[in-house]
Amino acid sequence: MVQMSYAGAALAALKEAMQADPRVWCVGEDLGRGGVFGQYKGLREEFGPDRVSDAPISEASIMGAAFGAAMVGTRPVVEMRFADFALCATDELINQIAKARFMFGGQSRAPMVIRKPIGMWRSSAAQHSQSLENWYVHTPGLVVAVPATPQDNYAMMHAAIAADDPVVYMEHKNIWANEGEVDTDAPFDWGRAATRREGDDVTIVSWSDTANVATRAARTLAGEGIHAHVMDLRTLWPWDKDGVLASVRRSGRLIVAHESVAVGGFGAEVVASVVENTTLKAPPKRLGAPRALIPYAPNLEDQLRVTVDMIATAAREMCT
Predict the structure, then answer these.
(1) Mean predicted confidence (pLDDT) in 304-311
(2) Inter-CA distances, 137 with 145, 170, 207, 210, Å
């Protein structure tokens, strides 16, 4: 076991992949100085500018060039800086990259990792704070990864680089510095949720940093005699539908919590799947952001967050 930060874990995995396979390379803005959050620190010095390419400010060009490189045999890691900025390259991702394997009958693939940092972080306001993971879950051809811990950011980065399909890899900006133990030999299975806490009273399904919030809420609830089963999905496509259904069949209660906007969010898909396949003891509960723009002011920003208290209160109401 090695102690790593969330950002450092992904960096270590990327470095190891680049050392092991010369086809792996990085492209994006600010990589020459180590990335906006230091997530590429030291790579340019070790691997040179040909494999750590510092691109001009043109997300569409970055995505398109990387796509072409992927189709001829390389494995690019594409840095979009912020999920918000990546919208400038949506056509390349949705209409070209996601469809390449299908439209070419499997003769060509796009083995790419598209890193899109998500989430509210230090008053970054409406254009730098969005969580847009459900957009990409809706798109056939894309894998969607949302790691919440250093362990998963290490193992999932390795798995994403090795994948033969494009992986939209969404790391939460607010937890770059979070520390944790990392087992560098631990495997990762796509579509299998991680159990963050055991319990049979209520099932809490979450992902990204909100999974960490849900785990803290479960600890609070345990002190009150309510034992929550916390499931961190880790990937939204594929997602662990069978695991969620198995947990809810034991507990009979479901809370889905996520930072992204609740309206049209992936939480609704989880709830619909559970309602269609199980019998519940109480109505399911979705906790997510309102359909509102993210403000700059910290006190207003906090009004959009899903908190420990919100999750704990929902669980208490269900279990009493």
Answers:
(1) 97
(2) 10, 12, 13, 18
Residues 215 and 178 in one domain: no
Per-residue pLDDT of 121-146, as tens digits, reads: 888 999 999 999 999 999 999 999 99
Residue 189 lies in a domain: no
What is the rounded distance in angstroms from the CA atom of residue 91 to the CA atom of residue 17?
A: 28
Edge-to-edge, what's the strand order for the sheet holding 228-232? 194-197, 228-232, 202-206, 254-261, 285-289
92 and 201 together in one domain: no
Rounded CA gap, 290 and 79, in Å?
Answer: 28
| pTM (predicted TM-score) | 0.96
Select which of 128, 158, 172, 229 is catalytic: 128
| 158 tagged catalytic | no
| C-alpha closest to that of 153 among 294, 2, 316 | 2
Element at 270 (helix H, strand E): helix 266-277
Range of the domain at 88: 2-182
The whole-angstrom distance between residue 293's C-alpha and the CA centroid of its chain comes to 21
Element (H, E) at 19: helix 6-20
Same domain, 34 and 135: yes
Q: Which of 128, 150, 182 is the last residue of a domain?
A: 182
Distances from the Cα of 89 to the Cα of 116, 126, 170, angstroms: 11, 19, 15
Residue 187 falls within a domain, yes or no? no
Quick count: other Cβ atoms within 10 Å of Cβ 191?
16
Which of 184, 185, 205 minimizes the C-alpha distance to 265?
205
Number of domains forming the structure of the chain: 2
